[in-house]
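Service request form, structural biology core

Requester: graduate student, group of Dr. S.
Request type: structure prediction, single chain
Budget code: on file
Notes: please return the result as structure tokens.

Sequence provided:
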Amino acid sequence: MNGRPIDHVVHRVDGLDRAAATFERLGFTLTPTASHEDRMGTRNRLAQFRGRNFIELLEVDRPEKLQAHDFAATPPFFGFGAHNREMARFGEGMTMLVFRSEDARADIASFAEEDIRTYAPFDFERRAKLPDGSEVTVAFSLGFATSPDMPRIAFFVCENRAQEYFWKPDFQSHRNETESISAVYFCSQMPERDAAFLARLFGGGVALHDGGFAVSAGDVQELRVLSPDAIAALDASFAAPEDGSTVMAGLELSGSATRPTVPSREAHGVFLVWSA
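Core staff response, request fulfilled:
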């Protein structure tokens, strides 16, 4: 089975304006700044791609207002902003991996059937600015899942309920010619274990990869779960967690041309590699 395509990655940064300036220098076109609801406590800018996926640069800008986790509730509540606030102590980097969904509530049920820990569905809306300057409302339903072996990473599905307003071709043309996310790299002390969990999420096929394993995510994307040594060979500047935690380390981006690798020290904790 091919699994489920990647919708986006959440890249938590300490200062959204500073990170946005970095990504614009790297040749990305970004959407205007947008704020989530107070219960999320975050704001973002996106690098949207023609492949219908994107990088979400995210800042927790209202930590005093966000809604905390409530794991004792029935069903338990997972806080989008709360997770990102907690991860701030580990530095900048990717904190969440998101998959496409046509029905977030059905996906939550499928997680439960696989004995994957899941949470209450989360529905929200926000205002978005179109290229002509007008504003519209975009809406989403999220379904979260977590692994006790990967506490620094949250997984969720995103049901986009206003796609006609969300995807903006004017923002999908990039000077660096990026057209899609083709792979997400994980740094793991136990690649086989973590690849098996990722495969369980949506039935993605697992194959050997140099230094670890690759899990298919739809027809053209992969989740590459590699050892710290294999990640270091891709980016010597990436700092693997001293406590052995599994984290997302980098992205492979596809486009019309290959470009030099951008190390994590130059891209707010995430390395970037390109493939044609």
